[in-house]
Structure formats: structure tokens, C-alpha cells
Amino acid sequence: MSKKKMSLRELDLNNTGSWPREYKIGACILIGLLIFFLLWYVITREKGDELTNLESQESTLRSEFETKQGKAANLEPLKQQLAQMEQQLQQMLRQLPSKTEMPDLIVDISQTAIATGIQNDLFKPGEEVPREFYAEQPIALTFDDIPVHGDLPPGVTRERVMRDIVAALAAARAPAQGFVTGAFGQGDPDAAAATAVWRRSGLPAGNHGRNHLNLDTLDQAGFAEQLTGNEAAVAATNAGGRAPARWFRYPFLAEGGTPARRDAARAVLAAHGYRIAAVTLNFGDWTYAAPYARCMARHDMAGVATLERGWLAAVRADAVTARARMRALTGRDVPLVLLMHVGAFDARMLPRTLALYRELGFRFVPLGAAQADPFYASANDPRLPGPTPSLERLAAAKGLAPAAPPPAFDPQTVCA
Is residue 310 part of a domain? Predict the structure, then answer.
């Protein structure tokens, strides 16, 4: 008797024993495959995670190996470079002062004054500010051309520039000495407002000549007229109408061109009781005024950023060079006098500039405190032989070559 062929629908799951032989074999194969898949999944899942971690470790170890292999290949050159750096560090550490020399300098000043019959103001040294390797070096801030200097960006006033400068100085607790050119901005209400801002700040102002004329073009009478003709403007810029000390800054830092003209001007200054403000730091801040105004007029903030980077690089290079040059020429740290101007870009950059000087190890002192150093003797007393001391003149007197110029950056090329 032949067996009846059954379809899948006719299979009874509750009575698998009655299934035809071929269906039983097929069911066993499916159950076996299911069991195999489950076992494979359970066993290999953990191994898969472990494999992923191992592959990640392999990548990390391979990267470390390549790095160490590169170091090993350059081990000897790196050792030589390290030795050179250690040698340079030791040389620089030997140049750093172990203590501030101001007290001894003031004793020298007093003895010199007594010997020459000069009556000095009271000089009181500040406390030394210790750092890890050095004591902070004094620096005096001076600002020329009050109340007007350079071009202005659109919408910026002289009064705002002066407010920003005074605010930055106050925030940094930095004393400063201004210098007035009375004919600049004469009759301009904005310039008058800028002058009033400086006066209300209580910061002292000195004489910069009425018309900012180059002394190389003036005779003694012409120089005397420029000096005395500016004194009313100077008085109006000082709180109370009188400066605590009479300071003069040569326009263009020009002192006469010839020894005879220089000495004639010094005689005028001595007769009117003036001291001369020297310059031993000068990074050319005035060259940024016009390009900054151009960039702002064009809304070229990339150009402004270029000027900012150039400015800070120039500040750093000038400070580092001047400090090293002064140590090489005098064997010690002499307080430095910085030349700046009341320009719009000076105002913008002043907070960052003051922070950078502090980062470089400087502290801010009044002009009189900085020039209390004997290095500035001929500036403090115009009766002594000139010229006004500077790093360049001292180097020339000792027959030394000029300092190497910093990397070239010309602000005038920006937004041109």
C-alpha cells in the first residue's frame, strides 16, 4: 500500500513522531543550525568586543612605537640641542640681577648732587618685587603730543582716545608722564576735551614745544620761544595748573644737530629749570596711527589684526633688545624710559602692551624715579655736558656696533 504524501500544513507539531522521515530529518537540521547560531553568537560576541579593544590598542601602540622610533633615531642630535639650551639658559641666568640696585644708585645721586651743589627732590626706592629668577626692572611710561596725535578712525574722537589711555593706566596702576604740544588742536573743542581728561586724571604733563618744531632748524632764541610759549598750555594740562616737576621732551628727539646748537638749547632749559626726558625704549608706536585709521575706514579687521600682531612683536623685540643692550653696555639693569604717543592705536593696544611689559619682568614707575639712575645724569641737569643719554649714543661712545634690528615689519604697508 502506498503512503500518502503530506504537505507542510498537514504536519502536527504535537505529534512529530507521525511525520514522514524526510520532514523529521529537515526539522533536525534546522534545530541543529539554530543551536549552532546561538552558540556562535554567545561565544563570539565577547570575543568580538575583545578583538575591537585589541585592535584599538594595536593602533595606539603602533603610534607610540613610531614616535619613540623617531626620537631614538634623533637621540644624539636632541642631546646636543638640550646641552646647548642648558648652556644658553645658564648664560641668561647669570645676566639676571639677584637684587635691585636702586638704593645704591640713590646714594650715588645724592653724593653727586652735594658735590655739584644741585638740590634734588626726595628719591624713595620702592620695594624689590621678587620673582623666581629675577627682580622686576623699572620702566617709566611717557606719552607725547597731548592732546592730538595722528589720524583717527571714523567715529573716534580725541576725547575718547584720551579716556581709553587714562583708563588703561588706571586699571594697571601705572604712573605716566605726558608731554604737551600746545599748538596741536588749538581751537578744537575735541582737543580741549582730551586735555581736560588728562588734567582730571591727575597725571603730570611736561613741555614738548609749542609747535613740535625740530630743534635742528632753530636757533637759541627760536627754541626759547617754543619752550616758554608752550608753558601756558602745559599748566592748563596739569591738575592745579602746575606740574610737580618741569620736564621737557625734544620734538623728534632732535637736540640741535651741532654741539653748539645743542649746548645753547641746554642752556635755555637750565635757565628755566627743566629736566630732559630721555628715551631708552622706542618701538615706533607712531607708525601705526595712519594704517590703523585706514583699516578701520575700510572695515578691514584682518588688517587691524595684522597691525596688532606687529605691534606686540615690536614691543617684545624692543624690550628684550634694550634690556640686553643696557646690560652689555653698563653691566647692570638701568631703569628704562618708554616713548609712546596719545594716538588711537596706542589707546587700543595699551592694555595688552602694559600686560606684556609685566610679563617681560618690568614694573611701572614715575619718570623721576626711573631717571634717578646716574645713567640719566646729563638729562636731569642740562648744565652738564650733553647730549641726552641713550643706548645708541652710549654704544657709539664705546665704539660698539648698533644693535641688530628686529624682524622687519612695516605698518605702512597694511591697508595701503
Answer: yes
**Tens-digit pLDDT profile for residues 333-381:** 999 999 999 999 999 999 999 999 999 999 999 999 999 999 999 999 9
Cell numbers for 388, please give them. 641726552
Query: Comparing C-alpha atoms, which of 158, 98, 115, 125 is closest to residue 333?
Result: 98
- The closest of 312, 336, 311 to 324, measured between CA atoms, is 336
How many whole angstroms separate alpha carbon 330 and alpha carbon 334?
Answer: 8
Distance CA 328, CA 41 (A): 79
DSSP three-state, residue 124: coil
**Tell me: the pLDDT tens digits for 53-75?**
777 788 788 877 877 776 676 67
Here the CATH number for the domain that contains residue 344 is: 3.20.20.370
**What's the DSSP call for residue 130?**
B
Q: For residue 219, give its domain range.
A: 136-413
Q: Are 411 and 312 in contact (CB under 8 A)?
A: no
| Residue 199 covered by a domain | yes
Residue 291 resides in a domain:
yes
Task: List C-alpha distances in Å: 406 to 51, 283, 311.
Answer: 57, 10, 12
Which uninterrupted H or E stretch holds 87?
Answer: helix 75-95
Query: Who contacts 261 (Cβ-Cβ below 8 Å, separation ≥6)?
Result: 215, 216, 218, 219, 220
Total-model pTM: 0.70
Domain count, the chain: 1
Q: Compute the distance between CA of residue 144 and CA of residue 147 in angstroms, rounded to an integer.
A: 9
